[in-house]
Structures are given as structure tokens and as C-alpha cells.
Amino acid sequence: MAEQEWRGWQGHALIVGTGGLGTALAEALTARAPGLTLWTAGRRGAGPRHLPLDLEEDASLERFAILAAERLAPLRMVICTAGLLHDGNLQPEKRLSQVRRPHLERSFAVNAWGPLLLAQAIEPLLPRDAPTHFASLSARVGSIGDNRLGGWYAYRAAKAAQNQLLTTLALEWRRRLPQACVTLLHPGTTATALSAPFRGSVPPGTLFTPKQAAQQLLTVLAGQTPERSGAFLAWDGEAIPW
Ligand SMILES: NC(=O)c1ccc[n+]([C@@H]2O[C@H](COP(=O)([O-])OP(=O)(O)OC[C@H]3O[C@@H](n4cnc5c(N)ncnc54)[C@H](OP(=O)(O)O)[C@@H]3O)[C@@H](O)[C@H]2O)c1
Known about the structure:
The protein is an alpha/beta fold. The protein has a single domain, classed as Rossmann fold (3-Layer(aba) Sandwich). Helix content is 38%, strand content 16%. A seven-stranded parallel β-sheet has the order 3-2-1-4-5-6-7, with helices on both faces. The protein is globular and about 50 Å long. It starts with a helix and ends in an 8-residue tail after the last strand. The structure holds NADP nicotinamide-adenine-dinucleotide phosphate.
């Protein structure tokens, strides 16, 4: 089983984003992949194994790439948990009249371009001769085939764009880094700051704690192999339509 293989994995792991799911994933991964040295990156966070990173700023990405190159090779596992649904007066749209260009641009900067530019920054650190994971948190609402409710224009579209960008990355790495596995993950609705304003409609008993969600996501990731690179999977391992 792939999960047991992590016990023998040596090198570095990186969690980007230190929000609800990022923090829980960092804790869970430390226990499940004890041979990997765990690093975090993001706008908030401190300590000797935290690198500053703002995915909306090219200069920050460049500084991050330099620091990562000095410290994080070989990089065996990356999980990007950065995401943006609401922030101040940026709120998910209920109707067309609420759509704003700056909100679309910010949502795409974090939810779509962010994970791809992160992949570009860390690509030189991925070993060619050992399996690696590059996972990123997407969302079921990014599925075009599964969109039955409408609304949330910017977030839905940016997650759909992330799915396309990372599918394209998976195809490129299949040729250039055949041991790399790219996975898009839907965590299920989880009690974090991101979901806090929208939990009223969540049926009782279906809201995950970050700890639960992190364990479930790592179990799904453990089942992923390079042959399955490019999958879009829910917390229970189910494939989500594009
Ligand atoms: N919670 C859910 O129900 C749910 C459902 C489906 C999908 N997801 C996805 O799961 C992921 C994790 O979300 P969460 O629930 O853990 O929410 P969260 O607690 O709000 O965490 C979001 C993280 O994204 C980071 N981020 C935002 N903008 C950034 C930027 N410019 N540069 C770097 N980092 C940035 C935040 O950093 P700061 O701490 O600096 O703000 C924070 O660490 C997101 O991609 C989200 O879309 C969540």
C-alpha cells in the first residue's frame, strides 16, 4: 500500500497555506510520513521551517523559489492548501450584478494561477529518480459537469481553471518527471474560516473537522500513483466529473 511506502520516504515535504486545512494536514503528515522534513509556506506563519510566500506577488514567489532551492531538495511531497472564497468586501456572488473584475482577478490569482506558479517554483527540487506528490486543494464547486446551483462565479471558475492548469501540468510531467503524481483534491465541507459564513446550508453531520478532513485527504493521496496523475478526487476517493 502506498501509504506504508511514505514511512520509508526521505527528503522534504511542503504544505502551502497555514489556514484550517493546511495546519491540520501539516500535523497529520508529520505522523504519516516521519522520514520527511516538513516545511510550511504562506503569508502567515513563523519558525525555522516556514518560508514566506504570497501567491499573489511575483516578487514573493521569486524569493520563495530561491529559499526553497537552498533548503528543500529533494522535495517529495507538496500540498497546496491556499484558497480564497471571501475576504472583506470580496464575497461570493449570488447573481451576475455582483460580479466585479478585481474580485475575479484576485480569485484567479490565488485559486488558479497560484498552484501553477507554485509548481513552477518548486519543479527544480523534484527528484527524477523517486516518486513525488504534488497535490492541490480544489473544490467540487469547480466542477462544470456538477454545477447545478449556480452562483459563486469567481470561485467556481477559478477552481475550474486550476483543474485545467494542473491537468495540463500532469501531462507535461508524465513526459518530463514520470515519477511525479499530480492530484486535485476536494476536502468536503470542513469547519475552517473559509466555510464559516456558509455553513447554514450544510446538512447536520456532514461538516468535517480539519483533523478528519486531513486524515481523509492523506488516505486518498496515499492511493495515488504516477499512473493516476491528473485525477480530481473527493475526500472519499470518488472521482469528480470535470
Ligand atoms: N473548508 C472547506 O469547506 C473547503 C471546501 C472545498 C475546498 N476547500 C479548499 O481547501 C483549501 C484550504 O481552505 P481552508 O478551508 O483551510 O481555508 P482557510 O483556513 O481560509 O485557508 C486558506 C489558506 O489560503 C491562504 N491564502 C489565501 N490567499 C493567499 C495568498 N495570496 N498567498 C498565500 N496563501 C494564501 C490563506 O493564507 P492566510 O492565512 O495568510 O490568509 C490560508 O492559509 C482552499 O483551497 C479551499 O478553496 C475548502
